[in-house]
Amino acid sequence: MARVTRQSAPPLDRSGLERLALRYVERFATTRGRLADYLRRKIRERGWDGETVDPAAIADRMADLGYIDDRAWAEAKANTMARRGLGGRRVAGALRQAGIAGEDADAIAPVVADQSIDAAIAYARRRRIGPFADQPGDRPTREKHVAALLRAGHSFQLARALAGMNPGDDPAELLA
User: What is the spatial distance between Cα 175 and Cα 17, in angstroms, rounded to a whole number?
Assistant: First the structure.
């Protein structure tokens, strides 16, 4: 049997890097930060041949052309995470990791805060915590539930209130 050898891809130049960026944004919903990180990784992997270029500038150009919208991506990500029951700290961390900062992050913060109680209730329902448990929890069980809610990104006060509720209690009391 003949061995198949793979040729390595040629080093990138400016036009090749822009083609990679365009292909990436056509395939994935992304942010400026993630696109710039992707382009830097490709330069590391394949090498560079040509004049120096800034991947962040290419990402900014893609955003100017309307191919990337950090705020829309952040809103979609925040809504998805809230539906999964994740709290504000986890959402903020995910947005920071994706490169969402400044006024885009500030615009999303009130939306995340408004969804915090509903997200905590969704998480408690999914994990059978507090009012969604089968039986009232003893102190160690409540402490584990509080810890789980904290890891999910919820505030300590909200986690303690939700974990301290008895099965069958109305979680709408948290809204008051």
Answer: 50
Q: Which run of H or of E encompasses 96?
A: helix 88-97
Q: State residue 48 phi and psi, 5-degree precision.
A: -130, 140
Cβ pair 131, 100 in contact under 8 A: no
Q: What is the CA radius of gyration of the chain?
A: 23
Q: Which helix (H) or strand (E) holds 8?
A: none
DSSP for 28-76 reads S---HHHHHHHHHHHHHHH-B-SS---HHHHHHHHHHTTS--HHHHHHH
pLDDT at 2 > cutoff 80: no
Reduced to 3 states (helix: H, G, I; strand: E, B; else coil), residue 21 is helix
CA distances (Å), origin 96, targets 42, 54, 116: 22, 21, 18
Summarize pLDDT for 99-152 with one digit per residue, the tens: 998 888 899 999 999 999 999 999 999 999 999 999 988 999 999 999 999 999
